[in-house]
Amino acid sequence: MEISKNILLLIFLGFSINGLTNSNPTEMIHYECPDEMACLTSQITINDELYNPELSVVEVANCGSRYNQENYKFEATSHDISFRLTWDVAGEDLKVGLVSGCMPYGNCIGESDCSSSQDITMEFEDLIIGHEYVVYVDACFFYPVDFELEITPGEPGEFSSVTGISTKQCDEQPDVYCNSLPIEIDVFYQDDDQEEYFEQAEGNWNFFVDGPESFDFTIDDIANASFNVTQFGNYVVCLESVALSCGSYEIDYCYELEVIDKSVDFGRLKVCEHELNEDDWVPSIHWDGDPISEPGFHIIETQDICGCDLFQQVEVIKLEEVEEFVEIELCPDDYPYTYFEDFEFEYSQFDIETNLVIHRGSLQEDYRRDECDSLVYLTLVNENPQDRCSSCDLPISLNKSKIVYCIPFDNEAIDVSGKRNIVLPVGIDFDDNGSSENILWDAVFDGDLDYVELPHISDLNTTDFSLDFKFNKDEDFENGPIETLFSKGDSEDNLRYIINVEQVTDQTFNLVARFY
Q1: Which of 370, 334, 364 minimizes the C-alpha distance to 352?
Q2: CA 228, CA 207: separation in Å to the nearest integer?
Q3: Quick check: 341 pLDDT over 60?
Q4: Three-class SS of 143-174
Q5: Which residues on adjacent β-strands are paired with residue 296?
Q6: Is the Cβ–Cβ distance between 320 and 273 less than 8 Å?
Q7: 482-489 and 495-503 beta bridge pairing
Q8: Which of 12-16, 58-62, 168-172, 428-432 tops mean pLDDT?
Q9: What 8-state DSSP symbol labels residue 292?
């Protein structure tokens, strides 16, 4: 005798119970799965016959050997049920058994042994409410036998196969929901067998959705339950009840979710002109549109990895490239000349004119705080060595207020102009290379109070004279944004003018003259 796990089977021989009948089917079906589903709310009695018809398709399992099986299908409305099988023909062996539905889902719950006692009673517990079952009667030999089957259900039970629900929309983003795709509902069961049965069983499953949109709906295919919403916000979906063939049952399991707008606004972004000109700029690696090359508003409609519809938008502010005209006068000794560390020029007897793009050379910063490129129209004026460049060995530079300069006087205060003007160095040491040929000398200003003084002479009392001063400023000022290069006073120490170099930017300086 086979007995299913979790089922209590009791067999009584020779025990009689009076039966009641109701409107349920009163005949059993030979071999095949009955079309009608009995709903047992009280005791019923079935009188039928085991006979030997032509063998038909077998649609109901048997816990043992099958002879000429008769089947009766019902939906469990209680956890307990008992069967009493009686017959009048002495010496004939019969058996009664229970399986959990028709093929291919039916499994053996239990059956009695073949008996000739003419009276068999069986009791089963722990039936699954709402589940289909088939009780069968079978002769143990191929002889016709009239029999009576009395079926007595227990008290009505509660439906407990469902243990909860959840929702899903996309495996790649399991907890994110949009409003353009169905939201699928997963129903959880006590075990895999119950899930398999109820997903194919006939029934109406009733849901309620509450949130920005509230509505209820009913489906008959619980394996493919889903719903749609159009508004964003927080929702609660509840499986409230199920109506099966023989009864309606409260369930009341709920699940909370949030439907979000997956559209993305990348904001207002300042973009350097050179990046837009490269025709490959996008605001993010998640931008699904084409590269952007023009300023303004850009909006695209696209889908994410889950297939949700969404918009992406960005406002592009173009930062124009800074254009600067730079002219630098150089002597042959200045070459090779390096400009902004990235551009090197060799000497040419002609002026050099070129357009340069200085990478990240602008003070403008984009949305990533990266500097933009700057555009420089550079002219290198190559001086004639016989003119300006013969008066001084260049380059002359200002390095942290230490000035290397050239004056047309040597340590012995010889004026190469022939006028024997005297130059008085204050806090300055000339170099010691000698002056036999009256070549030009240089000195280093190594303090902020160092200077060279040319006493007032009548040669400067003219209305028109020129001063020639050449330098490159390589580093930041050490003593503030202004350096005094030279000043002029009369014999009475009255200051007539002062010429300063004033810092404009990190790389540019102005010569500013003030007259008194």
Answers
A1: 334
A2: 13
A3: yes
A4: CCEEEEEEEEECCECCCCCEEEEEEECCCCCC
A5: 316
A6: yes
A7: antiparallel
A8: 168-172
A9: B
Is residue 427 very low, low, confident or very high in pLDDT (cuts 50, 70, 90)? Answer: low
Helix (H) or strand (E) holding 227: strand 226-227
Instruction: From the options 1.20.1180, 2.40.50, 1.10.4030, 2.60.40, give the CATH code of 162-259.
Output: 2.60.40
From residue 438, alpha-carbon distances to 407, 409, 442 in Å are 11, 8, 12
Give the residue among 482, 511, 513 at the shortest CA–CA distance from 496. Answer: 513
With b for 16 or more beta-carbon neighbours within 10 A and e for fewer, the 434-458 pattern comes to ebeeeeebebebeeeebbbeeebee
Q: Please determine, for residue 189, whether its predicted confidence score (pLDDT) is greater than 80.
A: yes
- CB-neighbour burial class of residue 505 (10 A; exposed 0-12, middle 13-18, buried 19+): exposed
User: Per residue in 197-209, pLDDT tens?
Assistant: 999 999 999 999 9
β-pair type (264-272, 309-319): parallel
Tell me which of 506 and 80 has the higher pLDDT.
Answer: 80
Question: Which residues, at least 6 apart from 278, have a Cβ–Cβ distance to it below 8 Å?
Answer: none
336 residue type, one letter: P
pLDDT tier, 395 (very low <50, low <70, confident <90, very high otherwise) = very low
DSSP per residue, 53-74: -------S--SS--SS-EEEEE
**Per-residue confidence (pLDDT) for residue 333, from 0 to 100:** 74
Candidates 2, 8, 7, 12; CA nearest to 121 is: 12
Q: What is the pLDDT of residues 447-497, one digit of tens each?
A: 455 565 655 555 555 554 444 443 434 445 554 555 566 566 655 556 566
Question: How many other CB atoms are there within 10 angstroms of residue 39's CB atom?
Answer: 17
Pick the CATH number of 9-153 from 2.60.120.380, 2.60.120.260, 2.10.10.90, 3.90.70.10: 2.60.120.380
Strand partners, 339: 343
Instruction: List CB contacts of 200: < 8 A, sequence separation 6 or more.
Output: 105, 223
User: DSSP string of 377-418?
Assistant: EEEEEE--TTTGGGGS-S--EEETTEEEEEESB-TT--BTTT
Residue 378: CB atoms within 10 A of its CB come to: 19
Task: Give residues with Cβ within 8 angstroms of 326, minimum separation 6.
Answer: 376, 377, 378, 379
Where along the chain do its domains lie? 9-153, 162-259, 264-319, 322-382, 392-515
Specify which residues 336 forms β-bridges with: none
Give the integer Cα–Cα distance in Å for 144 and 199: 39
